[in-house]
Amino acid sequence: MHRCRVKSSTLLSAGFDPERNILELEFTSEEVYQYYQVPALHHTGLMKAASHGEYFNAYIKDQFSFKKVTG
C-alpha cells in the first residue's frame, strides 16, 4: 500500500485502501499498523487535520480493529 508522508510528531506516513477500507499508519517509532473497516472519511479527516496525532487519538485509536504489520 502506498503511504504519503505527513508532518507529525506521532506519524510518519499514512495510506488508505478504499476497496478494503484499510488505513495503514507508520508511526515515528517506525512501526506500521493496519486499521480495518475504516470509513474513507476518516482517512480524509486525518490527512486534512491540523494535528494528525490528535485526529488519530480522537477518531481512530481504540475505534477500529488493527494489526501490527512491521516494527
Q: Describe it for me?
A:
The protein is α+β, with helices and mostly antiparallel strands and 71 residues long. The protein is built from 2 helices and 5 strands; from the N terminus they run ββββααβ. The longest helix has 9 residues, at 40-48. The protein is globular and about 25 Å long. The model has no long low-confidence stretch (mean pLDDT 96).
Note the topology.
Blueprint: E1 4-5, E2 11-17, E3 22-27, E4 32-36, H1 40-48, H2 52-60, E5 66-70
Antiparallel strand pairs: 1-2, 2-3, 3-4, 4-5
Helix pairs in contact: 1-2
Outline:
With 71 residues, the chain is an alpha+beta fold.
Distance between the termini: 16 Å
Classification by helices and strands: alpha+beta
H/I helix tally: 2
Strand order of the largest sheet: 1-2-3-4-5
Q: How many β strands by DSSP?
A: 5
Low-confidence stretches are none
Question: Any key phrases for this structure?
Answer:
71 residues; alpha+beta; five-stranded antiparallel beta sheet; 2 helices; 25% helix; 35% strand; globular
